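seq/struct pair 1
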Amino acid sequence: MEKVFDLSLNVFFAVIAITWWVLLVILSLPFFILGLLYNPRPFRKIYEQIHAKRLRKIFYTPVRGLDEYLKPGLKVLDLGSGTGLRAEEIANYYKVKVTLCDIDDFNRTNLPLKIFDGKNLPFPDKSFDVVLISFVLHHTDHPVELLKEAKRVAVKNVIIYEDNKKDMASDFFTMMHGRSYNWFHKIKSSCTFYSKEEWERIFAKLGYKIVVSLTRWRSDSLTYPVKECLFILAN
């Protein structure tokens, strides 16, 4: 019964999202193209502001349960940090010391940034108390290598957010998200998504202890009807 209800919700959200996307594209495409051709900066600023507001919902909601793992003063590595807006919100709210790490300089904050090659982290063993990997693994061609490196540099936990590719609807939307995001940010990767169970098997093979593993609807489910996974792993 629960599976039938879950599938019905998936179909309902998928119909709404597709309709919304079609209308959005029709109405905004001419302005978007003109903006990219003549002055893309305002569009990126608007995107970053919207993105930052959504990040507050992800990390500030008590039910998300990160307070137990992000204690004040801990050293945190944000792996695949992007603009750094997520890390800045985390640093301010949880009072932790955050270092950014990405394959290029997308940083829009004053937080320290380390560039790496996408596989090997430029840090000694056990350099950070916690490593955060938020919706990043599906954008890389080397997720297993990154997970090994995260395990190497983390003392306590690795916190991972990922999209849950569970059925035909989520398969379609994750594919669309991956391709559009990579195009927008000029990222070259295959964008591989997995289900919660597939991720759990990968973590187990790498020797992680799974402390938390759950799925839930995202705050933007009406436009992106894909459940998110939260994994908290211990070395």
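seq/struct pair 2
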Amino acid sequence: MSFPSAAGLAVPPSPSPQRLKRPRWFDPRLLSGIALVLGCVLAGSWLVSAADHRVRMLIANRDLAVGTVLNANDVRVVAVQLGDVSDRYLPASTSVAGLRVRSQLVAGELVGRDEIGPATRGVSLTIASSEVASAQVVRGARVAVWLNSKQCRGGVVLGDVTVQAVHTAASGAFASATGPSISVLVSDKQAREVLMSLALDSPVVRFAVLSHDQPGLNADFDPRACQAVQS
């Protein structure tokens, strides 16, 4: 068997070498990928914002008992999603200063439109405690005011009043006090009873904090009877 000689074989030409191209930053495929990612991010952000129906509303900044005359520091603004019930509550644009709490508000609770109203007329009294008061005696708390004197057995002067302000200095209707003073709003009749109690010899005043659901105490202190004993 014979084989053809190497001289008779056709040798294909060698391929010409190709030089590698330097990568370009402005590659259309790269730009298309970047644009696609940005488009997805923007679309996602739009969908999230479109689904966010939160509105800015007012909530109570602290516990506020019935009768509290509100100021700007008693509320703060939060963004909440309420849907169809948003009309039941006060928006952030509402000015509440000078309005009166009609039903108990708990710290963090949305302020309902029916839960506040115009302030009722009353007499403002500042009453000082004769001893260090509980830390629970704060603005918006409910308290009963208890009093006794040298001649008379102690009793309740005000059975249920709301603290409008607390003052650390001992000043107000009752003298010789060592504890804080509170400002309260009372009726004309209550104011007369308190003022009559001022005339007693060395009155001692204490505050008792009432819980949210605790009924008010019976105001059983009779300053007229005490004055009769004193005379």
